[in-house]
Each structure stands twice: as structure tokens, then as C-alpha cells.
Amino acid sequence: MKHRIFFLFLIAAALVQATVLRHGKVLGVKPDLLLICAAFASFHCAAPWAIAWSLCAGVLKDVFGVYSYGAHTILFPLWSFTLIMLSRKISTDTNLARAVCLFIIATFSGIISGLLVLSKGDYVPSGIFIRNVTLEPLYTALLAPWVFTVLGKICLKRDRDREPEADEAADGERLPDSEFSEDGQDPAS
Amino acid sequence: MFFFHRNMVQNELLKKQVAVLQKQLIDTNETYLENRRLENLVSFKQESPYKLVAARLIGTSADSWSSIVIIDRGKTSGIRQGFVAISHLGLVGRVIETQVSTSKVMLLTDPAISVSAIVQRSRQEGLVSGTLGNNLIMRYLPVDADIKINDTIISSGLTEAYPKGLFIGTVTEIGNEFSGLSRFATVKPAVALSDLEEMLIIIP
After folding, report:
1. Minimal CA separation from B204 to chain A, in Å
2. Burial class (CB in 10 A: 0-12, 13-18, 19+), A112
3. Could A113 and B63 be called an inter-chain contact, meaning their C-beta atoms sit closer than 8 Å?
4. What are the tens digits of pLDDT across the range B44-73?
5. Mutate: best of B30, B58, B63, B179, partner A, most A CBs <10 A
6. Predicted local distance difference test score (pLDDT) of residue A155
7. Report field, pTM of the whole predicted structure over 0.90
8. Which residues of B touch A14 (CB under 8 A)?
9. Does A174 touch chain B if contact means CB atoms closer than 8 Å?
10. How big, in percent rounded to 5, are the helix, strand and coil portions of chain A?
11. What pLDDT score was predicted for residue A159?
């Protein structure tokens, strides 16, 4: 994966999340671009890189937040680890499967964030809580395939330029579980 | 054939000119609206007894569990943590974090913010806090509280956090708490916090 380009995209996603997406709210919620980027890294990078990028995304989300107590800095790498483990058990080669995994992760993330707010004694109406826990992950999951496609085009190297080594490429990019590469060609051929 | 080609070329040219003029019209409208907003702020600033610093919004929180905005004024403009943010329409929020040239302001709609408030008509006290939605909630009202729909809610000044008399909002709904021991009122904020673009920070 082109790590430098991905890093720039991550910074851009954080800025878009803090500025432009304010006007892109649907029913008061906006998608979590940083979580989408962390998920992309989890699906396409080796574990150390994926967790590092997820940590970076979590830090960026906490920078633009207030009272998360650094929760996203801890949670994002945890979600990345979960996605890596999950992708070894089930097939996550399609954008649909990845979006569903992301929806589940985003729901858990929303629940934990909401419980953190409630634990401080703040009052959040039940309708708002349910809205944030259901609509935001749904919005995130619906936007994810498009972001995955864009990231795939700009950040992923072509497979014929790589020489696969066991289950990991030399630059740390993890091969998908199937024997076929991103463009459907057998890397052994 | 010659006239057809000439007319076609002219048509394309005119379409481009129309597109340019439309963009200029949109820019002019935007400048006009910004001018009106800033005029309101400036006239309010001149008439207000407080020392005020104008600030523009440059960002918002990255998640949906907090209502904070980032403004383009910081310590160099004299802003410190705890200062109150207002607009010409009413109370906006409070500065929670300051950097050299930017600050974070927590809006009234954040559930972590609580403002001691009173009903302007009956002087009934309560606590106004955010709900992450479009409305605020005024809680801890006694069962026999004298509060009605369309009542004006202002800051009480009981704490030093918020000056007295800042317009918070208008009552839209009154109900009983789940325990039945107190009542609550839904308050529509005076300031459209979701559309905020500029604000004033009170410098004590």
C-alpha cells in the first residue's frame, strides 16, 4: 500500500470530518470517515501497519473531540485488531462484507462513546442515544464502499508489481485470504 | 450553414458567460448575507456593555456525541478557558479549551453544559442543559413551577460562569419527569446553533 498517500488521505479525512461534514449531516448524524479509513487499513495492510494507522485515526478523532478521554485512541486499534481477526475467519473480499463488518464495529463504537457520555452524568434523551447508535453506523457503512473504492484506486499498488511472500508482501501489505489478488488474477501466474 | 456554425459558437460563448455570471451572483449573495450577519454582530458589539471579541467558526467536533466548535481566536486574542460565547441573538456556549490562535467552544446543545437559568416572567429557577438535539432541556422545576409555553428563559447569573440576563431560548413544551417529583421544559435555543458561523466571546 502507498502509505504516504494513505497518511495524507487520513489527514484530509480528519479535516473533512471536522469541517465539510457539518453540512452533510443526515438526521443530525454524520459518517465516521476516520473509522472507514482505519477499517480500510485493517483490510489491506499487515497487522502492525493496520493497528498503527488505526491508532493514528483514533488520535485524530480525539484531537477534534472533547471528552472522549482518549477513548478513540484506544478503541480504534482494538477495532482494527477485531477486523483483522474477523477477516481471517470469514471472507471480507467484497465491499458489502466489509461494510457489514464496519457497521457492527461502528455500532459498538457508538455504544461505548454513548456510555462514556452517560457515565459522566450527562443527560442524553433516549431517542438521541438510539439515533447516534443506529443511524451513524448505518450512514458510515453506506458511505464505506465508495470510500473503499476511492482509497483502493489511490493507495493500493498493482498486484503484478509485488512479489507475494507467504501471506505478507515485502512492504507490509497483507494479501487477502483468497489466493487471488485485488484484480482477480492469480499472483502465482 | 455558415450562420448555423456562427450561432452555435455564439451560443456556447453565451452559455459560458451565463455560468460565470451565475457564479458571481452566488458569490455576491454570499457576501451580502455575510455582511448582514457581521453588521448585526458589530452593532450588537457596539451597544453591548461587555468587552467582546468576534470569532469565526472553522471546525466542529468529529463525532456526534459532543457539540463543540472550533473558532479562529485563541490566547493571542485574550480568550481564556471559561469565557462565555454569545451572539447578537443570545447565549451560544462556553470556551472549554484555548490554544494560541484557536479555541474550542462547547455549544449549549452539548449535554455536558449546564446553565443556571430563570423564567424571565416568573423568575422560576431551573437548570438548562443540552441534549445533542436541536432543543435544550430545563430541568429541576418544581411541580408547581410557574412556567408556560413561549416563556423566555434567560441566564440567572447565580454563578459567575454566565452573566445575568443572557437570552437562552423560549419554552416549547412542558412535561413531568419520570419520577413525578419535578418537571422539565423543552427550550428552543435563541440562536440557531446548527447554522452558526460567527460568534462573540465575552472578555471579563
Report:
1. 24
2. middle
3. yes
4. 777 777 888 999 999 998 888 889 999 999
5. B63
6. 83
7. no
8. 62
9. no
10. 65, 5, 30
11. 54
Give the Cα separation of A24 and B128 in Å (integer).
28
Question: Which string of b and e fits B59-87 if b means at least 16 CB within 10 Å?
Answer: bbbbbbbbbbbbbebbeebebeeebbbbb
Mean pLDDT of B162-187: 91
**What residue type is assigned to position B184 of the chain?**
F
Instruction: Tell me the three state secondary structure of residue B37.
Output: helix
- pLDDT-derived band at A67, boundaries 50, 70, 90: low
Chain B residues whose beta carbon lies within 8 Å of the beta carbon of residue A124: 111, 131-132
What span, in angstroms and rounded, lies between the C-alpha atoms of B51 and B32?
26
Say what angle helices A33-44 and A95-119 make with each other, to 10 degrees. Answer: 130
**Amino acid at residue number B39:** E
Summarize pLDDT for A158-170 with one digit per residue, the tens.
654 444 444 444 4
ipTM over 0.95: no
CA distance to partner chain B, nearest, from residue A67 (Å): 8
Grid cell digits, residue B171: 419554552
Residue A68: pLDDT band (50, 70, 90) is low
* pLDDT tens sequence across A10-21: 999 999 999 988
Nearest CB neighbour to A66, from listed B106, B129, B137:
B106
Is B62 close to A17, i.e. CB distance below 8 A? yes
